[in-house]
Amino acid sequence: MFHIGLNHYLVVSTLLFVMGIFVMVTKRNAIGILIGVEMVLNGASLNLIAFNRYVAGGLPHMDGQVGSLFIIVLAAAEAALAVAICMNFYKNLNTVDVDRGDELAG
Amino acid sequence: MSTYEIALCCGVAVPLAMFCVLAFFGARIGKPASGWLAVGAVGICLALAAYVTFGWLGMSGPARAELAHNAYSFEWVTLTVHGINIPILFKVKLDSLTVMMYFMVTLVSTCIFVFSVGYMAGHSDEVGGQSKYHRFFAYLCLFEFSMLGLVISSSIFFLFVFWELVGLCSYLLIGFYFDKKFASNAAMKAFITNRVGDFGFLAGLMLVLFFLHTLDLDQAAAAFRDQYTHHSGLFGTTVSLFGWQISGITLATFMGVCLFCGAMGKSAQFPLHVWLPDAMAGPTPVSALIHAATMVAAGVYLVARIFRLLTPDAQMFIAVIGCITLTITAFIAIVQTDIKKVLAYSTLSQLGYMIFGMGVGAWIAALFHLITHAFFKAMLFLGSGQVIEGCHHEQDMRKMGGLRHKMPVTCWTFFIGVLAISGFGIPGAGIGIGGYFSKDEILAVAYERAYNWTERFSGQAEHASAGGDELPVRLASDVPDSRTPEENPIDHEVHRDKEEVREEIVESAGHHSPEKDRLAAHVPPIKKWLFWLPIIIAYVTPFYMMRAWWLTFMGKPRDEHVHHHAHESALMYIPLVVLAIGTIVFSYAMFRPNIAEAGVQATDAALVVAVDGVEHTPEMLSITHEPVERSPHHALFWIVGFAWVLGMGFAVLIYRNGFALAERLRRIWPLSWIYVALEQKLFFDHIYDTVLVGGTKWVLAQISRIFDTYIIDGIPKLRGRITVELANFSGRIVDAGGVDGLIDGFADTTQAAGAIMRQPQTGRIRNYILFGTAGAGLVLIGIIIVAYASMK
Questions:
Q1: Beta-carbon separation of A24 and B764 below 8 A
Q2: For chain B, what is the largest distance between any 2 Cα atoms, rounded to a whole number of angstroms?
Q3: Residue B122: count of CB within 10 angstroms of its CB
Q4: How far is the alpha carbon of B720 from chain A, nearest alpha carbon, in Å?
Q5: Predicted-assembly ipTM surpassing the 0.85 threshold
Q6: CATH architecture of the domain covering A7-98
Q7: Distance in Å, alpha carbon of B768 to nearest chain A alpha carbon
Q8: Cα gap B279→B182, rounded to integer Å
Q9: Hey, are the CB atoms on A105 and B762 less than 8 Å from each other?
Q10: Cβ of A106 and B758 within 8 Å?
């Protein structure tokens, strides 16, 4: 039988992570980048849970789950913050194209 | 130390102590009290002086000589000149001259101190809210100390010290109202003019020290005579100066003239007379005490003291200077309208008479005139002070007149002063006061010197030359030889070698003191004009004095306002009365016995001259007793006997109705020019201002300009140049090249680095993410490689 082990999880989480990075690098829309960030975070929290299950030995250990819960909470907070930044970005530049926000360029 | 010496020293010390008290505590002692304390101090001096004077008068000649010879001396310091030790001794000079001067100074100053209390009561004496009242009396006490010290000094050195001290007091008191510009200027003028004279005095003092090796008056005179006799020392010296050979006798004359320069400054003789009229800027009691009675007479006193160091040429110089002074100042006095200025110029004129008297050898007469003049001139000045005070500081005679009703005592004491200075007297009757005896005595001596001298001593002179006595130069300093050795124990030894000559002459010279006459023959007669100028001034003196008196007290009041407020106060006129009595008593009682043979005595005074220790007894003085026709008022009966009548009469004639007639007279052609010249004081002030002050200023200006331009300015300029160069070096090279280069280098490097570093900083967030991820990936790959490598 096809047994699902740690490596599968790791592959999925890696895919998520890499896709998130890819989205962040390629997308010019600020919201898109936010979505990419969410994907990276999800990839990371999937990793935590997988390691908790297969490496730490599962229940009663719940460190990984707690960590991923924190990430979710943080991601929610971060999303709120990021949307607010997007709003201000838009307010200032009349667009959400991040390439236009290059005022900090040296 | 005899009681007399102690008394004289105490008399000097008391005013000094009072000066210290007033100087330190005067402000606390308060206004009238400090004045009365000063009066008390000078009263003590007067008491001591009276004790000494009356004791001295009661002593016999030898007793006095004995006392003077045994005087205590204190060695103050020892100088070494040419390897010879010269002690400077402090010793009380105890002789008739000192006692007389001491008594005169204390008596006059007591009167003036009392007067001052009254005078200062009505004067503002505050500067910046601080009272100067006590300071005035402190200065007066300091002056009293200095003047008495001067009188008792037996050493020329201490004479000089006190001489400078009285000069200082004069300066302080002329400039008493120093908040007024003219007063402080007058004080400076007096002080600086006196410095000119004192420089000469100091030079003379050096010459005395250098050649005579002593500073004691008696020893110096003895050494002078000794060197003359042996043709050594001063007289054996020949000085070469810029190719000129100066002989010893010229040097001796020069020394005498130098010493006289001091007297010229202090007694305000031509050409240094300019300070005295300006000195009237001081309070009137000061004018009376210092600038009329005592300090200015110190010059005459000095000449009397150094008389034995004077060669005939030096004496002639003194006579000429005195004659010029008495003439020009008397004429200037005629046109003065300020009452104090008239008195100032008359003081100058009378001082001229004294100096002239000294110069022609009227030694006793000049000192006699000094004493009488001190009294009547102090009285005249105090009278003018009373007038000025009574008229509320009005000094202009044009605003006075008719004051006799308002201030009768002042009026009549002033009149006594006018009579005294005019030489009032009735020839033949022996009645007269002041100048009648003293001034006419000087004139009588001048007459003798001008007309009777040659034939009087021709016999002796021939005899002297025939007798083989070598007198290469004429020298009056030999005069004290006239005294017999018994009379002069100190000088006895020195002159033993002349004994033979003397004896030889005695045989042929009868009752005359032979050596005296022989020496007199070597004193030349004076020029005729030296006799006639003082005679003319004897007519001018009563004129200007009567003019002053008449304009002040007689006639109608010319200014109602001034006249209305005029008053006199007892504190101020009592001293006037005392001085008036003093004038009469001193011109009579004290010298009356000598008057009969005055002409002869005074003539011989040049020869009998030194009173050191030995009193002139009438017997001694009448050695060369001449017929009574030679007495001044016989010899000069028609020449000067009635000068006072003419002078005073003429003054009344012109000024009986105030200035009206005088105004008209001065418009007449030659008089108008003379008037302008006299009113401008013969342009002395202008000449001095332009030539001396202006010249000095010009020279100083040039020197300062050069100094300023090249040294004062040069130093900063040089420093500036150095600084600029240094700045250039440090700025251009060190700062710009080194310091700035370093900093700039850093900055440039940083900038260049920044330019490189900022290239990746695109501002594009996607780039950043790419770089971050790529970096992380690279790190991961690195870790994996390392992990694999370590596993192997």
A1: no
A2: 164
A3: 13
A4: 50
A5: no
A6: Orthogonal Bundle (1.10)
A7: 8
A8: 10
A9: yes
A10: yes
Model confidence pTM above 0.95: no
Name chain A contacts of B765, Cβ cutoff 8 Å. Answer: 33, 98, 101
What residues of A are in contact with residue B761 (Cβ under 8 Å)? 104-106
Residue A1, min C-alpha distance to chain B (Å)? 32
Chain A CB contacts of B751 under 8 Å are none
From the list A25, A27, A102, which residue is nearest B762 (CB)? Answer: A102
The secondary structure element, H or E, covering residue B708 is: none
CA atoms within 13 A of residue B748's CA, in its CB half-sphere: 6
**B616: helix, strand or coil:** coil
Whether B518 and B505 have beta carbons less than 8 Å apart is answered as yes
Fill in the DSSP letter of residue A51: H
- Residue of chain B with shortest Cα separation from A99: B764
SS3 assignment for B159-194: HHHHHHHHHHHHHHHHHHHCCCHHHHHHHHHHHHHH
Specify whether the CB–CB gap between B238 and B247 falls below 8 A. Answer: yes
Q: Residue B25: CA atoms inside 13 Å, Cβ hemisphere, count? A: 9
Ramachandran class of B406: left when φ > 0, alpha when ψ lies in -120 to 50, beta otherwise: alpha
Which sign does the torsion angle of CA B651, B657, B663, B664 carry? negative
Residues of A contacting chain B (CB within 8 angstroms): 21, 24-28, 33, 98-99, 101-106
Residue extents of the structural domains in chain A: 7-98
- What are the tens digits of pLDDT across the range B152-205? 888 888 999 999 999 999 999 888 888 888 888 889 889 988 998 999 999 999
Can you give the length of chain B in residues? 792
**Do the chains contact at A102 and B754, CB–CB below 8 Å?**
no
Amino acid at B292: A
- Alpha carbons within 13 angstroms on the beta-carbon side of residue B622 total 15
Nearest to B766 among A98, A104, A105 (CB): A98
pLDDT tens-digit readout, A34-83:
899 999 999 999 999 899 888 888 778 888 889 999 999 999 999 999 99
- Whose CA is closest to B376, among B414, B402, B348, B411? B414
